[in-house]
Automatic annotation (TrEMBL):
<dbReference type="InterPro" id="IPR000362">
    <property type="entry name" value="Fumarate_lyase_fam"/>
</dbReference>
<dbReference type="InterPro" id="IPR019468">
    <property type="entry name" value="AdenyloSucc_lyase_C"/>
</dbReference>
<dbReference type="GO" id="GO:0016829">
    <property type="term" value="F:lyase activity"/>
</dbReference>
<protein>
    <submittedName>
        <fullName>Adenylosuccinate lyase family protein</fullName>
    </submittedName>
</protein>
<comment type="similarity">
    <text>Belongs to the class-II fumarase/aspartase family.</text>
</comment>
<dbReference type="InterPro" id="IPR022761">
    <property type="entry name" value="Fumarate_lyase_N"/>
</dbReference>
<keyword id="KW-0456">Lyase</keyword>
<feature type="domain" description="Adenylosuccinate lyase C-terminal">
    <location>
        <begin position="363"/>
        <end position="435"/>
    </location>
</feature>
<dbReference type="InterPro" id="IPR008948">
    <property type="entry name" value="L-Aspartase-like"/>
</dbReference>
<dbReference type="Pfam" id="PF00206">
    <property type="entry name" value="Lyase_1"/>
</dbReference>
Length: 440
């Protein structure tokens, strides 16, 4: 088994990361850093900090040169960061020392790496946006189509009152809808460029470092943060926390599907299920199980990453390395989760017959709450609760229906109290409201 299942040829289809997986490769990181170096040179040339001819040569080379990440490995192992080796290789490949000397002028490794990270995270967030939108549309269709499909609600694993399958779907979708709104706000705010030099003081970045930083941000389509953020990892931890909340919401979706497909309940059918190596009758809920496992991984990685926000002094290698080890797999956890969740939402279907059988086999006990309130027009609430509790015990002991026991005692009761379709409360409205809230 590989150290990371995301990189495994064997497990790739179990944890499909799609385009996001390509953004967290050595090649993608090197390419992003080269783009930052090229944009930096171009803005410095325009500002008169380095010769414009050299700036143009560096910028052109940043788009054309190919640097093998493996060739940077030994120096990276020694330096702790890849930028010194990258700069050396870049200068060598340019074969123009008169221009190459101005590469990486006044910047520090963290400026280049953090800015390159933001370029890649920008693409990851865009992918999340699209994936969440598609997932929400699939859930909205399910919620609307089954807004009045009755099923047993369960609390503490026990039958509670009737609800609708559409309302259950809305419970899965509502947190994702909130997260989608937050994601768009985060994207609209933009991700920050980093340019503040060796110790955050921008000493070697020319006469107007703030203007240079703003120009670099504009060149790369990033936001000017207005300050150095080498040791301020607030945005990174904010993104990590958002990813974890999203993965947790998908995990809830997975947990419920595992329960709804288990033997003895089987109220939901999955479009695709896994086979057992020895038990041909089994259809294992593989996709839902992946969602639960990814949620667990995200929560663990997020805890690791949040602790890495403790950057000592102006810059901190240990905290930064911890961030490198936790942020990429955290991002990929959500990418894989969104892919699996969308496949599930597009193909799962409620087994309405199984849901009806569950309701029918419940001996009418899901109507106990409604019955206790209906009786309050003839007795106090505590008396009504006690009377219904006694009837429930009687029905369970005798195997009779609560409706029959109640009507025998109070013949004028509305028999509709015991019809699940008539006791859905706000469930249909909740389902439709969620579907309506999903952007078209």
């Amino acid at each position: 088994m590989t150290a990371s299942l995301f990189d495994s040829q064997l497990y790739a289809r179990l944890l499909p990361t799609g385009e996001a997986g390509r953004l967290f490769t050595d090649t993608a990181e090197v390419r992003a850093m080269m783009l930052v170096e090229g944009a930096l040179a171009k803005t410095q040339g325009a500002a008169g900090i380095i010769p414009e001819l050299s700036a143009a040569a560096i910028h052109r080379a940043s788009l054309e040169l190919q640097i093998d990440p493996a060739g940077l490995a030994e120096a990276t192992g020694q330096n702790g960061v890849p930028v010194p080796a990258l700069v050396a290789a870049f200068r060598d490949l340019m074969q123009a020392p008169e221009h190459a000397q101005y590469l990486h002028w006044g910047a520090t490794s963290q400026d280049i790496q953090d800015t390159a990270l933001m370029l890649r995270l920008r693409q990851v967030l865009a992918q999340y946006d699209d994936a969440l939108g598609s997932l929400l549309h699939a859930l909205a269709r399910l919620a609307r189509d089954h807004s009045e499909t009755p099923m047993a609600a369960r609390t503490y694993g026990q039958h509670a009152t009737p609800t609708s399958f559409g309302a259950q779907v809305a419970q899965w979708g509502r947190p994702l809808l909130t997260l989608h709104t937050e994601l768009r706000q985060m994207r609209d705010a933009g991700l920050p460029v980093s340019l503040s030099g060796a110790a955050g003081t921008a000493t070697a970045l020319g006469p107007d470092p703030a203007a240079l930083r703003a120009a670099l941000a504009a060149a790369l389509g990033l936001r000017d943060p207005g300050h150095s953020w080498h040791s301020d990892r607030s945005l990174v931890t904010q993104i990590a926390a958002w990813i974890t909340r999203a993965a947790t919401a998908l995990g809830k979706f997975g947990e419920d599907l595992i329960l709804l497909t288990q033997s003895g309940i089987a109220e939901v059918r999955l479009g695709g299920a896994g086979a057992s190596s020895t038990m041909p009758q089994k259809q294992n809920p593989v996709g839902p199980s992946v969602l639960v496992a990814l949620a667990a991984q995200a929560q663990g990685l997020n805890g690791m990453l949040q602790s890495a926000a403790l950057h000592r002094q102006q810059r901190d290698g240990a905290a930064w390395f911890t961030e490198w080890m936790s942020l990429p797999p955290l991002c990929l956890s959500l990418s894989a989760g969104l892919t699996q969740a969308h496949a599930l939402a597009e193909t799962l279907a409620p087994d309405t017959d199984a849901m009806a059988r569950t309701l029918a086999a419940s001996q009418g006990l899901l109507a106990a709450e409604a019955l206790s309130f209906a009786l309050t027009d003839r007795m106090s609430r505590p008396e009504a609760q006690a009377a219904v509790k006694a009837l429930c015990k009687e029905a369970l002991a005798s195997g009779t229906h609560l409706r029959d026991a109640a009507l025998a005692k109070w013949p004028d009761l509305d028999a509709g109290l015991f019809e699940p379709r008539l006791q859905l409360g706000t469930a249909p409205a909740e389902a439709r409201a969620f579907a309506d809230a999903v952007p078209g």
